[in-house]
């Protein structure tokens, strides 16, 4: 496709037709771009070329406000709530968490004594059946190991997700309320 950016403007638009039903949600796609010419400007080498990456998102992908509770078996840490978590598409039915408020991938807890944050080494991921609402798997994306799951449910009426998991010393109950797209 060819785009001409009108004189005096810095924006041009191109229409690309895609077939979402043929997307593999676990794959990242690329779109190469090349600037052929610009009036009054010399475009040198690599500066006139770019590769844009994009991927499709599943229905659970987005930014969520998360409330909940953490029980630390050692009694040293507590949960950080409310917080803002991004659920990021892994495939058609799976998402992995990313704390967009703190800008950190792993599950963090707060020291009761000092207020400092600690990395648990856990990055929760969920597999959700969008038709039944059943969360079929809760696991640590960092290791691939399953976590013991309690009551877990996707609520299609409001897009919220209730998650309960246990791993090592951490017993976590959370409610994800959809805030918007990421």
Write the layout of secondary structure elements.
Layout: E1 29-34, E2 49-54, E3 62-72, E4 77-78, E5 83-89, E6 94-99, E7 108-111, E8 117-119, E9 124-128, E10 135-140, E11 148-149, E12 153-155, E13 160-167, E14 170-180
Antiparallel strand pairs: 1-2, 3-5, 3-14, 4-7, 5-6, 6-9, 7-8, 9-10, 11-13, 12-13, 13-14
Structure report:
- This protein is mainly β.
- Helix content is 0%, strand content 44%.
- It is built from no helices and 14 strands.
- The protein has strands spanning 29-34, 49-54, 62-72, 77-78, 83-89, 94-99, 108-111, 117-119, 124-128, 135-140, 148-149, 153-155, 160-167, 170-180.
- Strands 3, 5, 6, 9, 10, 11, 12, 13 and 14 form a 9-stranded antiparallel beta sheet that branches.
- A hairpin with a 4-residue loop joins β5 and β6 (94-99).
- It starts with 28 loop residues before the first strand and ends with a strand.
- The relative contact order is 0.16.
- The model has no long low-confidence stretch (mean pLDDT 91).
What are the main properties of this structure?
three-stranded antiparallel sheet, 182 residues, single chain, mainly beta, 14 strands
| Helical proportion, percent range | under 10%
Shape: elongated
Hey, roughly how much beta strand do the residues contain?
Answer: 35-45%
Order of helices and strands: EEEEEEEEEEEEEE
Structural class label: mainly beta
Count of DSSP helices? 0
CA-CA gap between termini: 28 Å
What is the mean predicted local confidence, pLDDT? 91
Q: Biggest sheet, open or closed, and with what strands and sense?
A: 9 strands, antiparallel
Radius of gyration: 21 Å
> Runs with pLDDT <50, length 5+?
none
> How many beta-strand segments?
14
């Amino acid at each position: 496709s060819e785009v001409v950016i009108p004189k005096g403007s810095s924006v041009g638009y191109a229409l690309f037709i895609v077939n979402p039903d043929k997307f593999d949600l676990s794959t990242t796609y690329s779109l190469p771009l090349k600037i052929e010419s610009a009036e009054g400007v010399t475009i040198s080498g690599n500066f006139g070329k770019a590769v844009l990456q994009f991927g499709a998102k599943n229905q659970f992908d987005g930014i969520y406000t998360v409330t909940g509770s953490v029980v630390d078996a050692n009694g040293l840490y507590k949960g950080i709530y409310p917080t803002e978590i991004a659920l990021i598409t892994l495939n058609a039915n799976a998402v992995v968490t990313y704390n967009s408020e703190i800008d950190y991938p792993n599950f963090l807890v707060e020291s009761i004594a000092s207020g400092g944050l600690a990395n648990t080494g856990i990055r929760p991921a969920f597999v959700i059946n969008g038709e039944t609402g059943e969360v079929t798997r809760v696991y640590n994306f960092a290791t691939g190991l399953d976590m013991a799951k309690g009551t877990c449910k996707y609520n299609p009426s409001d897009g919220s997700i209730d998650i309960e998991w246990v791993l090592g010393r951490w017993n976590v109950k959370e409610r994800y309320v959809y805030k918007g797209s990421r």
